[in-house]
């Protein structure tokens, strides 16, 4: 250990770079010439207790998960309703095509590609 002392202003500026400006502890420590361990100690003395912040973040994440689950359930119900409506409206056939009657034979025409094939 070098036993070197740093001024409170120096420590405050180093901590400010980590907390306010978002630089990593390793990056700041290397740039200003102090150990990571020392800078972590300085940051932890200034930073408020993380337990309260973590508890609030956890509660917020749980609320978001519950909201997203509700949204997913609603969307699945809407999807199922639309699937049922699509099957009912095509007479049990869920193809993207329409039938063209030519006399006695029926041709199936794909409404997207325009290709026609015979339906027997």
What would your notes on this structure say?
With 120 residues, the chain is α+β, with helices and mostly antiparallel strands. It has 3 domains: 39 residues; 41 residues; 28 residues, no CATH class. Helices cover 59% and strands 13% of the residues. It has a 3-stranded antiparallel beta sheet with strand order 1-2-3, with no helix packed on it. The longest helix has 40 residues. The radius of gyration is 33 Å and the shape is elongated.
Low-confidence spans: pLDDT under 50, at least 5 residues? 92-98
Q: Specify the number of helices.
A: 4
Average pLDDT over all residues: 78
Q: Give the overall shape, derived from the CA principal axes.
A: elongated
Relative helix content: 55-70%
Please indicate the count of domains.
Answer: 3
Distance between the termini: 91 Å
Structural class based on helices, strands and sheet pairing: alpha+beta
Strand line-up of the largest beta sheet: 1-2-3
SSE arrangement, N to C: HHHHEEE
DSSP, total strands:
3
| Gyration radius over CA | 33 Å
Largest sheet: 3 strands, antiparallel
């Amino acid at each position: 250990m070098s036993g070197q002392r740093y001024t409170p202003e120096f420590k405050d500026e180093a901590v400010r770079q980590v907390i306010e400006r978002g630089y990593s502890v390793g990056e700041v420590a290397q740039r200003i010439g102090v150990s990571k361990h020392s800078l972590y100690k300085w940051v932890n003395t200034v930073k408020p207790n993380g337990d309260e912040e973590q508890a609030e973040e956890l509660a917020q994440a749980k609320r978001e998960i519950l909201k997203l689950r509700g949204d997913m359930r609603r969307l699945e119900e809407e999807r199922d309703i639309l699937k049922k409506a699509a099957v009912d409206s095509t007479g049990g056939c869920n193809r993207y095509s329409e039938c063209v009657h030519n006399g006695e034979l029926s041709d199936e025409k794909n409404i997207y590609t325009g290709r026609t094939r015979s339906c027997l």
